[in-house]
Queue: 3 jobs
Job 1
Amino acid sequence: MRRGEGRTRRELLGAGAVGLAGLGVAASLPARAGAAVMCTPDASPARAQGAPLAATSPDAVGMSQSRLDRVAACLEAETASGRVTAASVCVARQGRVVQHRGFGRLNEQPGAPAAEADTRYIIASVAKPITVCGLMLLVERGSVVLSERVQQYLPEFEGEHKEKVRVRHLLSHVSGLPDQLPQNLELRRAHAPLSAFVRGALATPLLDEPATKFGYQSMGTLLAGEIVERVTGRPLREFLREEIFDPLGMTRTTLGLGGLRVEQTAIYQAGPDSEDLRSWGPNTHYWREIGHPWGGMHSTAGDLAILLQAFLDGGAYGSTRLLSPTTVEAMTRDSNPGLGAPWGLGWALRDSPVWNHFGDLASARTFGHVGATGTVAWADPERQLLCALLTTRGAGAGDGWLLHRVSNLVQAAVTTR
């Protein structure tokens, strides 16, 4: 971001990392209908658009096995060294999975279970575009209008300039809302319910006039999720499961823990022990279960690959038409023209100012998102390539060096157009 175009990249990255837990610390594809996995590689590269992901050899889709081996070697080295406790990756091209593996262990304890391809991680801000998918379903059904005032759906959203905030502003980080509430720490220390955060977001003053500056903020996603709940009369976690996860076969994705114990997931490397970490940090039941739509989702690399493939195929996956091609196009183009801060609706873009560690070699149409817990999911429509990488080391470590490095290795593994 150029000087004068809102807050700096470092400030925005810092805000997102603090938003993880307020501490300043920075899978196999389900074998269900619409999400079948081929255990034996399919030698034929022919595939109908929207067909479920299936495994194949890299050379069948114009990728290099030896170059993909560099991805595995990198993650093996990171987990063996202890810099990263666990990592899982899924890479696919032209609708065919060419790499899907787990590395390391679920936690730092001796004898901890091995991380698998289908290990579940808290994906942090990768939850944001998934939440926005839920809202966009309502846009397609005529229940929500992006150009309408937020106050139309949330009348308590009152204050200076708030009458100017449109629903679409919540989705591309130009609403003027803060990333986190001023009372963020107090709420978390009190184990406040999500409804208390919603009330705070409705009442908190705007930092900027809407649509004038880019300011990465989680509270916009929170209010987008609240709109879904108000319009449908259904809890967001229920709506997302019934309308997105189940139809696509994303059976290991949940907003909140979905009945899991925290110990059954990959444990985030949160830093030195403290009372706050033990009480409400990113590995506590409280924070994992509260279901905050800006970062409280659990998923696997394989499940995220399904969603990315649906976007590459114009909104369809298997027998499910999730979104129309028109909606997919709207979500993956720049919604902030003139601000010098490209962003889609929910999705970050290759040239976005933050949370876009999609690799230096990605094409201009690449979209995805990064999570502060060390996660990234992206898709490159020009190459029909996708990558979901989930780790336990914070994305802020080395300014996203590991996520960016692996993304580069994946992009460089493409050997044919």
Job 2
Amino acid sequence: MNTKHSLHRIPLAGSLACFAALTMGTAFAAGSSSPLPPAPSAVGTPVPVPAPGNPNGSNPSDARRTAIVVATEKAAPSVASITVRRTAVVAYGNPFFQDPFFDFFGPQYRRKEMSSLGSGVIISREGYILTNSHVVGGGEQGGELEGITVTLYDGRQFQAKLVGADGANDLAVIKVQAPDLPVASIQEKPDNLIGEWVVAIGNPYGYLIGDTKPTVTVGVISAVNRTFSSTSDIHYHNMIQTDASINPGNSGGALINADGKLIGINTFIFTGGGQSQGSIGLGFAIPILKAKLVMDELIKYGRIREFTTGIYADPNLDEARPGVAIAGLDRGSPGEKSGLKVGDVIYEVAGKRINTLQDVQDVFKLFQVGESVEILYVRVQEKRKTSILLEEKPRKKKLY
């Protein structure tokens, strides 16, 4: 990683001093006086439709009602602000006991209340909201979860419960009991186009701005299929890269296309390092189809189930030959069902070249039960291809 930049999960709003030190990224906001560039033909032309609930009470011309404006009106009500309250026991210094003579008093502790803020997207009328794990989790702040407050687009507030969180994929699901919830329209197939217009919707700086309406920034999809692994065992797979400005508080918010479809959950940014912690045009979102798989697991099981391939690799690797040889297969396992056999040499998994056993393990960390993984392998000098459908790992029976 370039030492001038750092991977930065979007920080949660914690204090006014923290935000005052940051500089907001520049982006065109829907409804601002700055004109938006015309939407490219790939995502549609300006659509003349009535302006519902125009906050300015004006009647804008049809030419100003671009596809981006219409998409924002569709999606923005489904984006909520999330405030998390935590308490932690922290040590503090007592100015009266700086003299070594008073060391026998030991360290001083007190309970500290903390609040942080992020965003979430309403996924169902039952009240399920998708967000990032680091929004509701302890993260660097730690502490005990005291409560989660969700503020909707229309100003209504509800207490939410944590349904489940998956730290490895940095996703979480919370739930509120509320009537008439605006639900996001989800992209049904991964047809993202590099260069198409996208809109990031979230609540950067949230309650410091004093408005329940989310902030809108516009950019393009800069790249797709970006994969990162962090030192905290978080694995970001096939991320969507965008130059739409993403800032503190945007974590868990929506990335939508010009059709108003939810295509990703805004998650982290690369910053300029040092004092530059705001957006520099390198933001990343978890693809919604991946996020939905995780969400369904958390709702149904409250956890992410472990999977098995049933494949055993040969630990005695041939350094002159790339790939990993199969030493054994469990009977009836996903590996055996895929047609793999002992002696086959796996040299590519999910598009990643395999040189070591660690490479295989790292790639499979990106997947979960129910996903299909493409494998390229060699059998007697013939290159072949297959797919493994990951199945839940059988639980061991308890003996009494």
Job 3
Amino acid sequence: MNISSTVNKLDGLKRSVKINVNKDEYVLQYKKDLDKYKSTVKMDGFRAGKVPENVILKNYKDRIQGDTLNTLIQSSLKQALNEHNLDTASPPKITIEKSGSPDVDIEYTAEFEIFPSIILKNLTDISVEQPDVNIGDDDIDGVIKNIQKQHTKWDEKKEEAQTGDKVVLEYEGTISGKPFDNNKQENFTFIIDDDVRGDDATVGLFKEFYKNSIGAKTNMGKKFTYKMPESFADKKIAGKTIEYNIKIKHIYKGMAPELNEEFYKNFGIAGSDHKAFKESVSKYMKVELDQKLKSVMSAAVNQKLLDENDFEVPEYMLEQEVKSITSQYESMQQKIDESIKTELGLIAKKRVRLNLIYMKITEDNKLSVSEKDVSEFIAKSDPASQQQILEKIQSDKDYLNHIKNKALEDVIINHILSACKIDKVEKKFSEVVN
């Protein structure tokens, strides 16, 4: 095609290409489009393919010119991008200066973003920590205690609450006498002095609830203050002193089940003793540990890739990812304030950067997934998940592509782990799994 084009570098990854398409190209394409209409248009009083040209032009001239212009823009833009080795990361925005005719060239400008030029740090220079876990008797006994705890029978009591009791209360928090978002709850439930995981604000607040529940009785009301840490995500209440009013609604005493044949039967181990139950728990722990180690190693690899490789991110890709994450968040009926918006933006940027790194590793190392890789990926799932995956693949053709992408992620992670340095660090089962 007879075209000329020039590239202009704009801010960041933005580029614009000014393209001129010779009028001779317009004449050739216009004739093709006109002939197409002449062979297909049906009009009253004429046989198909026999409508006179002047009648077609009277009715369809603007549409034919539009078809010609669109076709020439698409083909000329593709040619120009190839000539300048430009790989677009966003849909081109077209501005037409001249629409073209038998006497006038087509002139237009396409503005878009390109993919960043990424030079990855050599994988052999990257080191990743790998937890080295040996499941011992203490670990197994700890899991069995947790299983007992999960099957605790709770009976309501009238006596004072103490460590280990389950408490149900209602609370309301105020700052200088004024309410704030999500400041109250009707049936807040916890076990006094139970382990709490989370940020400093969550752990600290739970401890205050524990402390102020010990010695309390049903229907008793109490007040306490808690200064929210400066690091708390919601900046409207971070660093503020909150006064909490609580009222105890219920107190329950727990009784853990005995480890006996009846208890083992609940786990499908009828007629077994403690040794058999322990072996069963140990097998489950190994499966859980393998799944967790895979997740931990993937997360460690991803963080290393992000830490070691810096590059610009296309704004369009970032905007699309923010929209996707925001939509997922809203579907869970979560309220989005400014702090959440900022957090979602950071997550989106990490995802886009990681996707671009994955694309680069895949391209550089010619990685791909075979049917065998997909089958092995599905086989690694538990039996219930395998069945769900297979059923969904049958009903949703797009879901197979989703599984292929997941399998490709595994191929990429395994490739990285085979190339980088692995530093083994001794850890307990509970440290990794919890």
